[in-house]
Amino acid sequence: MTAETERVVIDGREIAVAPGTTILEAARRLGIEIPTLCHVEGPEPSASCFLCCVQVEGRRALSPSCAMPVADGMVVETAGDDVRASRKMALELLLSDHAGDCVAPCAVRCPAGLDVPGFVREIAAGIPGDAMDVLFETLSLPGTLGRVCPRLCEESCRRCDHDEPLAIAALHRWAADENGRARASREPSAAPASGKSVGIVGAGPAGLTAAFYLLRQGHAAVLYDAQPLPGGMLRYGIPAYRLPRAALDAEIAVIRRLGAGFRMGRRWGRDFTLADLRREHDAVFVAIGAQRSRAMGCAGDELALAGLDFLERVAKGDPPPLGASVIVIGGGNTAMDAARTALRLGVSEVRLLYRRTRHEMPCLMEEVEEAEAEGVELECLIAPEYLARHDGGGERKLRLVCHRMELGEVDASGRRRPQPIPGARQEFSCDTVIAATGQAVEVELAEREGLDVHTWGIRADARTLATSLPGVFAGGDGVLGADFAVRAVAAGRLAAAAIGQYLRGEPVVGLPAEANVAMHPIDDEERAALFRAIERRPRAAADMLDPAQRRDSFAEVDGGLTPVQALDESRRCLSCGCRQAEAGCSLRDLATQLGADPTRFLGARRRFERDTSHPDIVYEPGKCILCDACVRIAAEAGEEIGLAIVGRGFDVAVGVPFDRPLAEGLRKVAQRCAAACPTGALTLRTARACDLESCGVSRGAGSLVRLRALTPG
Questions:
Q1: 445 and 491: one domain?
Q2: Residues 397, 534: one domain?
Q3: What CA–CA distance (Å, rounded) separates 169 from 146?
């Protein structure tokens, strides 16, 4: 051995390197990746993050590999239990006071995991086709869900604290409708055929979505359904005035063009068994939905029409005779749909009875308001006691006797439990009663076929949707019980991921779960910082069909956004969530890999701040981990003022000396500093909606963003 080399053994592999070479450099030459957040090629190492720690034989303490030079005969272990535990703790400490959101609050709330800022950004930039690419990553039916989704995402929109939430559902409905009208519409493509096939029981939102994502992986997908046309509850449980059949059919047509096979009019248990499907296909997904209506639970409830059965008959063009007066029991979307449908069938008097108050109704409040505008009479705190036939002036009528109710203690649903007021009753006479008091899953057949079941549906693993039968997966309402269509879509995508892993012979783990930091709660000072440069702007309001016209047809009530409204609304988006997440955040990636818990050391955190004064970059000091990479880069580049670690104690931060503006501290290497920042504290301005000049956010001159014009069609 010569004096010019040192021999070191790293993870059992020997290498000879020049004196002064660090352990990190030697490991990289061997192809051994040691994580680090603070290391930057060129400037002197700082060893501040300690993520690169390793175990050197003969030393009790762990050592930072980025700063420790090798020594001849050194033996190093880079991935032992102690090393991993130390790295994990270092990450958890760094995350404990991180003042920022990895993912926008709206996207976190979306059951399907839609990248809301991502698709909205493309609309704001005038490229609805690119918005569709983002939408198709998580939503197979963006136009349909844009019409019927409960919009949980909008409840978490940051603008709720400023003016009004972004019209997220209306925007992805607009993007889908615009794409359908375009001369060259944007559609996903199927991967090369894998030679594997999946049988899907049920062609509702979960089954359609599973087929969509399985086909994109290259697997054949065949859907079996008892109904004559696909769509499930979307077609047979939601009236056309909310979801026009043309809009639904257009999205199903995309799945057909991907290569899905449809075997309609085929009922599970009558025309095929699970055993049949398991012989014919390599895997099976059971997506049967919850299509059994619950009875009212009172004497005489057999005299009532079931809400789902009523809506299905109307959808098939065979509405039952209703008479002149109808009472609907229930407070969910099915009850509202039944009441509003009855009006459209010519019923002169429709009354809806609900056992709790308006505030507790599970349907969207706008559904209640629209129903009342159309003429539905709503009575709350009333529940049926019994239903019977009687003669009313020579006509055969129904007599409904009800209890008046009051709210008691909070029950398992989180709402106050309704209870009868002793002696308080009310009686109604009507031609028809429609019971829309909930739906249930028909689990008896599933149990006979060998699937484990529980009270409300088929038993399936929450992470993978695997059932008790090998190669059989289940999801959607058939597992969860009656729920929103967007959750069924989410289940379909999860099933496709898990089934794909199963078909490839990989461990079945479902969709990856990334570490996520959420900045909450937000106090008044931070709220002011968030909205300081944001002007108040009203939410776009679609044209609605006049209530007087609605009762005469099943025409769509909500006219949707115009192109101008969609463009303007998209520019209200604050593009919440970390900019660095799009390019790959090292802090988040490592936290995910090591299973770090961002809440382990949760306590007081730094306050949210944002400096947008620089023309090329954005600085959020609450995300800074004081790795001083930017300080070293600026010094090496000879910035006249540069950056420094300023302050003391808990107020220490990176800043420009002498309280000068960021643009004066970083004249030459701002973009390089942003590229080196491991946490998103320094990020480049991008084509985000909030960076567009017309979005109502004040900023310094020189933004890199250029607005692309909207080209209709």
A1: yes
A2: no
A3: 4
